[in-house]
Specification:
Keywords: ATP-binding, Ligase, Magnesium, Metal-binding, Nucleotide-binding. By secondary structure, this protein is of the alpha/beta class. About 45% of the residues lie in helices and about 20% in strands.
């Protein structure tokens, strides 16, 4: 082996260790779920850094379900236009680098570590200022958002695609000014943080609207639409809604995904291949196209068909109706609330032709476990209740008790050890007629996907 190759391997190992050290330092902060309903802390940090969030235009995405998938389709379409993209999403499946994507690739270990060292002194200065006022220092998510903006400015990128962490109004991503604000379907979730009604939750999410923003939204239920329209009217903004300004015309199941036809304010797009499964993904795609057309030409110029095809071909949605194993078929999907569970049931029935499935389920505390189970019930043959190693995981015993009440004791198997739970479901499955569906929290899916790869039954 040449000295040059030795140096490359050494650099790679050093970069990995440096990135892991940076991540450990971030994890020493208040945990990701320790939300601070404030913007001034993040705003002060980016101000000291020269406001890197203003270094590129912004597409800002909020909602309850579909934010990550919509962000990834938007990012792919912009890349197909030749733009250099930066995308911030959360959470990650396997490595934290997945959350910060530059030009279609997770940020390198070298850039992650180097930018952290650059921003850390400024973050620590803000920490001291906050603690001097009796406030908590920057949380994990606040500091991570500052890091992402620094990485995008350093890259540099032409456009930033930002997925809101929670809510919108006081989410740390909201220090950026949305050129286009995108709203995926809004439902009840995080009610302890965002409010107990659809209207209250929507009002918080509508906080990403800024003077001069263009706004594009999925179809919303009346109370959500009313709250969104109220905020938009205050700013003189007209929201482009699905079903009015744009629509999904048709989708047909195809090898590896679906063929999608849609119409926007600017153009009709017929029969374009989308390599994602599930009707909800075709709706996400329609929303993404409308958002990109708003961003590039104010909604008056349609995306060229060859660019649309190239962009859709680049689109991925890890952990969303993703097939990771065959013999039997194993599908992973992050259905952590009833709305997402309904999309999962529709996807498994439509794309796999399955009337019943073997489920593995683990949720985080605070989620609507009963609502998720009631939604999954028509598709459940057997459900193996388990838990991830997250400190936020709902104890498997508690979830199994609720599952027994909803589905009947005979349909429920309790196996707290996740990997053994997956093997139990695989042994009970009959390939495509009874696929295995692993669902619930993202932390659970990441563990299963790593296990699948190690055991070599992951789909190649």
């Amino acid at each position: 082996m040449s000295d040059d190759v030795d140096d490359l391997i050494l650099d790679s190992l050093e970069d990995r260790e440096a990135a892991e050290h940076a991540y450990r330092e971030l994890l020493e902060r208040a945990a990701e779920q320790a939300i601070e309903p404030r913007l001034h802390a993040t705003a002060r940090a980016v101000e000291l850094l020269g406001d890197p969030q203003n270094s590129a235009r912004v597409i800002h995405i909020t909602g309850t379900n579909g934010k990550g998938s919509t962000a990834r389709i938007v990012e792919a379409l912009l890349r197909a236009h030749g733009l250099r993209t930066g995308m911030l999403t959360s959470p990650h499946l396997e490595r934290v680098n997945e959350r910060i994507v530059v030009d279609g690739q997770p940020v390198s270990d070298e850039a992650f570590a180097r930018n952290w060292e650059d921003v850390k002194p400024f973050i620590e200065l803000v920490d001291a200022q906050l603690e001097g006022k009796g406030e908590r220092k920057l949380t994990f998510f606040e500091a991570f958002t500052v890091l992402a903006f620094a990485i995008f400015a350093d890259a540099p990128v032409d456009v930033q695609i930002l997925e809101v962490g929670m809510g919108g109004e006081w989410d740390s991503t909201n220090v950026a000014h949305a050129d286009v604000a995108v709203f995926t379907p809004i439902a009840l979730d995080h009610m302890n943080r965002l409010g107990s009604t659809i209207a209250a939750i929507t009002a918080t999410k509508a906080g990403i609207l800024k003077p001069g923003s263009l706004a594009v939204s999925a179809a919303q239920e009346p109370l959500a639409r009313g709250a969104l329209d109220e905020r938009a009217a205050e700013l003189g903004i007209t929201v482009q809604y699905e079903g009015e300004s744009f629509r999904l015309d048709n989708t047909q199941i195809a090898v590896g995904g679906q063929m999608v036809s849609l119409t926007t304010a600017a153009k009709r797009h017929d029969d374009t291949a989308l390599p994602l499964m599930g009707m909800h993904q075709s709706r996400n795609a329609a929303l993404a196209v409308a958002a990109v057309e708003a961003f590039l030409g104010g909604g008056e110029q349609g995306i060229a068909e060859d660019v649309l095809a190239d962009g859709f071909a680049l689109a991925t949605s890890p952990g969303r109706l993703e097939v990771i194993g065959n013999d039997p078929v194993v599908v992973v999907d992050a259905a952590h609330n009833p709305h997402a569970a309904a999309a999962l049931v529709e996807g498994v029935q439509g794309w796999f032709g399955a009337e019943r499935a073997q489920f593995v389920l683990g949720l985080l505390r605070g989620k609507d476990a009963r609502g998720v189970l009631e939604t999954l019930a028509p598709l459940v043959d057997t459900i193996v209740i388990t838990e991830s190693d997250s400190d936020r995981a709902m104890p498997a015993e508690d979830l199994a008790r609720i599952a027994g009440e909803v589905l009947g004791e005979d349909a429920v198997i309790l196996e707290p050890h996740l990997l053994e739970a997956v093997e139990i479901a695989r042994e009970r499955a009959d390939d495509r007629e009874h696929p295995v569906v692993v669902t619930g929290s993202i932390t659970l899916l990441g563990d299963v996907m790593r296990f699948a790869r190690e055991e070599m039954w992951i789909r190649s």
